[in-house]
Write a structure and sequence with these properties.
Elements lengths: L6 H4 L5 H15 L6 E2 L11 H14 L15 H12 L11 E4 L2 H7 L10 E5 L4 H9 L5 E2 L4 E2 L2 E5 L17 E5 L11 H14 L2 E5 L25 E6 L1 H4 L7 E4 L5 E2 L2 E2 H12 L5 H10 L2 H27 L4 E3 L5 E5 L6 H12 L1 E2 L1 E2 L10 E5 L4 H13 L1
Parallel strand pairs: 1-15, 3-6, 3-7, 7-8, 8-9
Antiparallel strand pairs: 2-10, 4-5, 9-10, 11-12, 13-14, 14-17, 16-17
The protein binds pyridoxal-5'-phosphate.
Pyridoxal-5'-phosphate binds next to helix 5.
């Protein structure tokens, strides 16, 4: 009789987004005349920019011509895209990343879930709390997290680093030493960031204790402040301890088009074993490449027009973020985020739980957000609103919240 991977059975149900959707649906059915505004979505809403669409069209034409048709892509991704990334995301910032340290993928979700495979099950992971759920769940599936305690909502073998208002939603060094540290800045869900000096301290800490940092920089394009690092490799020594995950989803609207990349520096080693070689082996065996058409579209994001057009989209979302942040502040809410990230993190008023505030907001303002507690126990008492809606609906949502 075959057996399943019981680690999957240990996963607690992920009720967050399904419960949000169900509550919204039930409310709408009971109140068909109400116009609900969703500020809960982590998905972009603006269409792909013209530079990307042009690149897609011409790549599609190439695929229809025997002379220019492309079959399987090279394991690491096409050279034209890896060179463009190395030049624009790294060399332009004074960071030297070689083309063969960049692995093109179909996005940061799969990379953030898969990267743990190249590490031994004995490693202890540390995650921020609240956190993007993929880091922990993928380690649960692998069998690295011990047992789950329903009351504390924590795994016995995971080190949690609470990110609270006291630390400006940044993690502090944990008491217990981790082997793998997941960091995500700008952060989902809190919208917080760390300064270059703070990130340097994490790099120094990882180098001192022999840990590896998995640095998720999916929201890098939203950074607006000068002292916030765009890549962890701006920090001294980071190539010896950090893997960086990047995505085209939030900077260029590729959530449905799918493209990302992971940087694994060649000098990153465990004893004498190169993580770059291990990830290359894994990538070559289990992944057959992002489509040629999409890699050409990704290249177009870095063209002069592509940069201009995608920057305008980021600015549009960040204007929404400003509307939310300033509107809520003026209404007396305690808010953070929304300066270097498309997420606004607000303290629920009158000691309401995250879910109580969800219901209150839905019933009184017909606005849907995401309860902070869904991202981890330290998110209780907080609420996430996103800047990915339209300007008009964002303004209207804030007007309604102000009137509550
Ligand atoms: C922190 C973080 N990492 C990764 C992703 C997923 O990115 P991608 O669309 O490239 O898979 C998300 C998506 O919301 C995210 O919030």
């Amino acid at each position: 009789m075959f057996k399943v991977n019981d680690n999957y059975l240990k996963l607690p149900g992920s009720y967050l987004f399904s419960t949000v959707a169900r509550k919204q649906r039930e409310y709408q059915t009971a109140n068909p005349d109400k116009k609900i505004i969703r500020l809960s979505i982590g998905d972009v809403t603006l269409p792909l920019v013209p530079a990307v669409i042009d690149a897609l069209h011409s790549a599609v034409d190439e695929m229809g011509n025997a002379e220019t048709f492309k079959g399987y892509a090279p394991d690491l991704g096409y050279e034209f895209l890896r060179k463009t990334i190395a030049d624009n995301d790294y060399r332009a910032r004074g960071v030297n990343i070689d083309e063969d340290e960049i692995f093109i993928s179909d996005g940061a979700k799969s990379d953030s879930a898969n990267i743990q495979e190249i590490f031994s099950l004995d490693n202890k992971i540390a995650v921020c709390d609240p956190v993007y759920p993929v880091y922990v769940d993928s380690n649960v599936m692998a069998g690295r997290t011990g047992t789950y305690d329903k009351d504390t909502e924590r795994w016995s073998d995971v080190i949690y680093m609470p990110c609270t208002a006291e630390t400006d939603f940044a993690p502090v060094f944990p008491k217990e030493e981790p082997d793998i540290i997941y960091l995500c800045f700008p952060n989902n869900p809190t919208g917080s960031t760390v300064t270059k000096d703070q990130l340097q301290q994490w790099v120094d800490y990882a180098l001192k204790i022999g840990a590896v940092i998995i640095y998720d920089a999916a929201y890098e394009a939203y950074i607006s402040e000068d002292n916030v690092p765009h890549t962890i490799y701006e920090c001294n020594g980071a190539k010896g301890c950090a893997i960086e995950l990047r995505s085209f989803s939030k900077n260029a609207g590729f959530t449905g088009t799918r493209l990302g990349f992971t940087v694994v520096p060649k000098e990153l080693k465990s004893n004498d074993v190169s993580l770059n070689a291990l990830w290359a082996r894994r990538h070559g065996t289990k992944f057959n490449g992002a489509p040629y058409i999409i890699q050409r579209a990704g290249e177009a994001v870095y063209s002069e027009e592509g940069k201009k057009q995608t920057a305008q989209q980021v600015a549009y979302y960040m204007n929404n973020a400003k509307v939310i942040r300033e509107g809520l502040s003026s209404a007396g809410y305690t808010v953070s985020g929304g300066v270097n990230a498309p997420y606004i993190w607000l303290r629920t008023p009158d000691k309401m739980t995250s879910w109580e505030f969800f219901d209150y907001l839905l019933e009184n303002a017909n606005v849907v957000g995401t309860p902070g507690s869904g991202f981890g126990p330290s998110g209780e008492g907080y609420f996430r609103l996103t800047a990915f809606g339209s300007y008009e609906s964002t303004v209207e949502a804030i007007e309604r919240i102000k009137k509550m």
